[in-house]
Amino acid sequence: MSDEHFRKLENMMHSAPVIKLTGLRASIASGESRMTLAVREELFHAAGAMHGSLYFLALDNAAFFAVNSLVEDVFVLTATFDVRIMKPVSSGEVVAQGKVVSQARSIFTAEAVLYNAAGEAIAQGQGKFMKSKMKLSPEMGYRILER
């Protein structure tokens, strides 16, 4: 896989409306990815910590883009994804590390761990991913951004 493919995937993720809203940032390499997210009050639930949907967003994207890093022609789909939240977070930055753990024909399995600013694991996720029929295209943000 090429660095150009990884940069195009990063740009595709960063161009998605929900990502623009949350500020999630990606770094993608072959079979792995890293997502970072600043913990901000506007992402909190009523009890004053980051909402679980943001845990899912970071974990799913980390696993998803680890898989799509190995697929250069089509968009990958999340088929299943399980999340285990272990600890709340209300400050700093969280980092999700994702990696592909297996591939059997067209089904990939990937996992991700979410860490708080102290480096403690605060959530884990694992999912199954499959290739779609949607070609990766500039229209979906899969492109190199001009500077």
Report what the structure shows.
- The chain has 147 residues and is an alpha+beta fold.
- It is 24% helix and 41% strand.
- It contains 3 helices and 6 strands; from the N terminus they run ααββαββββ.
- The chain has helices spanning 3-15, 17-22, 52-68, and strands at 25-29, 32-38, 74-85, 93-104, 107-115, 121-135.
- It has a 6-stranded antiparallel β-sheet.
- Strand 1 (25-29) and strand 2 form a beta hairpin.
- The chain is globular and about 40 Å long.
- The protein starts with a helix and ends in a 12-residue tail after the last strand.
Q: Helix- and strand-based class?
A: alpha+beta
Q: Name the helicity range.
A: 10-25%
How is the main sheet built? Answer: 6 strands, antiparallel
Our count of helices gives 3
| Unreliable spans | none
Number of strands: 6
Approximate shape: globular
Overall residue-averaged pLDDT value: 96
Q: Which percent range describes the beta-strand content?
A: 35-45%
Order of adjacent strands in the largest pleated sheet: 1-2-4-5-6-3
Radius of gyration, rounded? 15 Å
Helix-strand string: HHEEHEEEE
N-to-C span? 23 Å
